[in-house]
C-alpha cells in the first residue's frame, strides 16, 4: 500500500531521529567502556562499546519515536485524559522500560569485558539512572512544548524573539459558525467540551502541514506559517491544512451529533503580510505577533460573515505568498473596502 505524504514525512523524521540517537549512543557506549570497563581498554572492547551504544541508541529512538508518532498520535484523546504529572509518569516509566530492555539486548549482542551480564553491575545501574533522567526530562520538555505549541518552546529557549523582529507570515483564522446559538442550546459545560474537541480536530489537520497554533480567541483558532520556510514550515501547507480540516469535519459529523447533539461548522480566512514578533510578559511569557496584517485578517473575517456560501476566503496577498497546491481552486470575489483601511483588498473564494 502506498504511503501518504504525511506518513512519508513522519518516516523521514523518524529516520533523522534514529541517525542522531545512534551517533549519540555510540559516543555514550564508548565513554562508558572507557570509564567502567577494563583498564587499559583494549581496542576490541572499545569497538564493542561503540557498537553496543550505536545499536542501543538506534533501537531506543526507533521504538520511542514510533511510539510517539504512531501510538500516541493514534490514541491522543486517551492520553489527553491524564493529568500533566500522570502523563509524564506513565510515559516516563514506559520510556525507562524500553531503554533498559534495549540496553539488555545490546548487552547480549555486544558483551564488553568487565561490564557485561545484565543485572546490578555498574553499567546497568548507570544506564538505569541515565534512562530515568532522560525519560523524565524528555517527557517534561515534550509536554511543555505541547502546552506552548509546536516550535514555541524552542523559540523561547533559543531567544529567537527576545528582541522584537520583523518577519512575514501567513495567517489562517478558523472561526466556528453560530457558536453563540450552540452554547445556548447545549449549555456552557457541554460547549466547553465541544469547543475543545473542535480545536483538537482543527489542530490534527494543521500539524501535519507544520502550521503554528498561535492562540485561541473565544471560538476562533489562529494559525500561522512563517514565509521564510524555516524548519520546513512552507506556507503552501496552509491551503492543504484547510482542505484537510474540512475533510476531517465532514467525517466527524456523526460523532459530534452523537456526543453533543449538534454538528459545528466553521469559516476560514487566509491573509499574509509583515508582522512584528517578540516575547512579551514576565510572569506569563509568550510570543506575541503585532501589526496591521493581523488586524486586516480580523477585518476580513468580519466581512466573510456577510458573504454566505463561501466557507474559505483568501486575500490576494495570501495567494501570492503561498500559491494553492493542485486540486484547490480560487475564484475572484472582487475588491472590498475594510473599516479603517484606505486601500481596498482583493478577495478570493477557495474550494
TrEMBL record:
One Pfam family of this chain: Guanylate_cyc
Keywords on record: Membrane, Transmembrane, Transmembrane helix
The Guanylate cyclase domain, residue ranges: 170-301
Transmembrane regions listed in the UniProt entry: 17-38, 50-72, 84-102, 122-141
The name this protein goes by in its record: Adenylate/guanylate cyclase domain-containing protein
Organism, as annotated: Ferrovibrio xuzhouensis
Amino acid at each position: 500500500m502506498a504511503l501518504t505524504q504525511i506518513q512519508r514525512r513522519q518516516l523521514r523524521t523518524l529516520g533523522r531521529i534514529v541517525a542522531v540517537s545512534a551517533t549519540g549512543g555510540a559516543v555514550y557506549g564508548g565513554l562508558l567502556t572507557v570509564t567502567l570497563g577494563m583498564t587499559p581498554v583494549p581496542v576490541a572492547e572499545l569497538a564493542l562499546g561503540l557498537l553496543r551504544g550505536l545499536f542501543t541508541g538506534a533501537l531506543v529512538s526507533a521504538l520511542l519515536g514510533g511510539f510517539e508518532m504512531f501510538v500516541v498520535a493514534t490514541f491522543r484523546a486517551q492520553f489527553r485524559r491524564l493529568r500533566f504529572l500522570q502523563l509524564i509518569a506513565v510515559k516516563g516509566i514506559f520510556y525507562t522500560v524500553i531503554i533498559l530492555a534495549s540496553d539488555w539486548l545490546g548487552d547480549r549482542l555486544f558483551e564488553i569485558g568487565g561490564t557485561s551480564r545484565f543485572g546490578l553491575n555498574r553499567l546497568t545501574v548507570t544506564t538505569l539512572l541515565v534512562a530515568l533522567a532522560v525519560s523524565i526530562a524528555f517527557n517534561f520538555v515534550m509536554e511543555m512544548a505541547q502546552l506552548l505549541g509546536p516550535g514555541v518552546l524552542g523559540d523561547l529557549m533559543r531567544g529567537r524573539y527576545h528582541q522584537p523582529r520583523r518577519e512575514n507570515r501567513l495567517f489562517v483564522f478558523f472561526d466556528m459558525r453560530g457558536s453563540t446559538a450552540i452554547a445556548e442550546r447545549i449549555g456552557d459545560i457541554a460547549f466547553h467540551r465541544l469547543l475543545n474537541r473542535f480545536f483538537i480536530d482543527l489542530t490534527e489537520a494543521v500539524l501535519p502541514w507544520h502550521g503554528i497554533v498561535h492562540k485561541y480567541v473565544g471560538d476562533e483558532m489562529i494559525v500561522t506559517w512563517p514565509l521564510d520556510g524555516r524548519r520546513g514550515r512552507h506556507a503552501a501547507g496552509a491551503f492543504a491544512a484547510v482542505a484537510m480540516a474540512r475533510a476531517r469535519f465532514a467525517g466527524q459529523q456523526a460523532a459530534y451529533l452523537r456526543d453533543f447533539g449538534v454538528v459545528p461548522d466553521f469559516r476560514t480566512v487566509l491573509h499574509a503580510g509583515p508582522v512584528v514578533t517578540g516575547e512579551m510578559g514576565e510572569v506569563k511569557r509568550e510570543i506575541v505577533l503585532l501589526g496591521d496584517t493581523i488586524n486586516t485578517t480580523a477585518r476580513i473575517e468580519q466581512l466573510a460573515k456577510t458573504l454566505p456560501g463561501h466557507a474559505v476566503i483568501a486575500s490576494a496577498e495570501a495567494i501570492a505568498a503561498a500559491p494553492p497546491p493542485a486540486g484547490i481552486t480560487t475564484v475572484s470575489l472582487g475588491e472590498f473596502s475594510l473599516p479603517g483601511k484606505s486601500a481596498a483588498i482583493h478577495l478570493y473564494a477557495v474550494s
